[in-house]
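ARCHIVE CARD
CATEGORY: sequence design from structure
SOURCE FIELD: tokenized fold
FIELD CONTENT:
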């Protein structure tokens, strides 16, 4: 007897222990946070050991890190929120509404990622100043951000799709 995949998924969600489901659905978000922390640690090791930058390079990463945290927060907000609404609609057997919810979440993720990249690119210096960058650290922080910002778009899309 072949049970359709959608039915099997519903049965798994209904019959699996909550602890197992919690782990299964929270694991991607936990991994995203760990990867971001590891990425930041590796940056600090390399930049801290690079003689021309040293302490100023580490300070540049420190004032830039809030931008990565904001990116992570928005990615998880849209990803987890969209997935939750999608799951609720599927559970209610409102398949068209579920698809519309997923489409809206995808569009919101794309729009927020583009807006984030544009705003942080245009206002890099004022935003860094707001985070505490002084005149000594500013050139290093701007250089670092100009490398990180364009690629944050892809990070955001990845965060959204993994949740």
């Amino acid at each position: 007897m072949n049970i359709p995949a959608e039915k099997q998924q519903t049965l798994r969600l209904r019959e699996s222990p909550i602890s197992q489901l919690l782990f299964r659905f929270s694991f991607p978000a936990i991994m995203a946070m760990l990867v971001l922390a590891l990425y930041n640690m590796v940056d600090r090791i390399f930049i801290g050991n690079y003689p021309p930058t040293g302490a100023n390079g580490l300070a540049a990463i420190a004032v830039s890190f809030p931008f990565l945290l904001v990116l992570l927060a928005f990615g998880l907000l849209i990803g987890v929120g969209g997935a939750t609404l999608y799951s609720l609609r599927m559970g209610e057997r409102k398949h068209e509404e579920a698809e519309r919810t997923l489409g809206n979440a995808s569009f919101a993720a794309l729009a927020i990622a583009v807006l984030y990249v544009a705003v942080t690119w245009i206002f890099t210096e004022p935003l860094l100043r707001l985070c505490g960058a002084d005149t000594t650290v500013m050139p290093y922080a701007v250089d670092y951000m100009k490398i990180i910002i364009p690629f944050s778009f892809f990070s955001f899309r990845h965060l959204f799709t993994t949740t």
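CARD ANNOTATION: The mean pLDDT is 84. The first helix runs from residue 5 to 15.
SHELF: design records, drawer C
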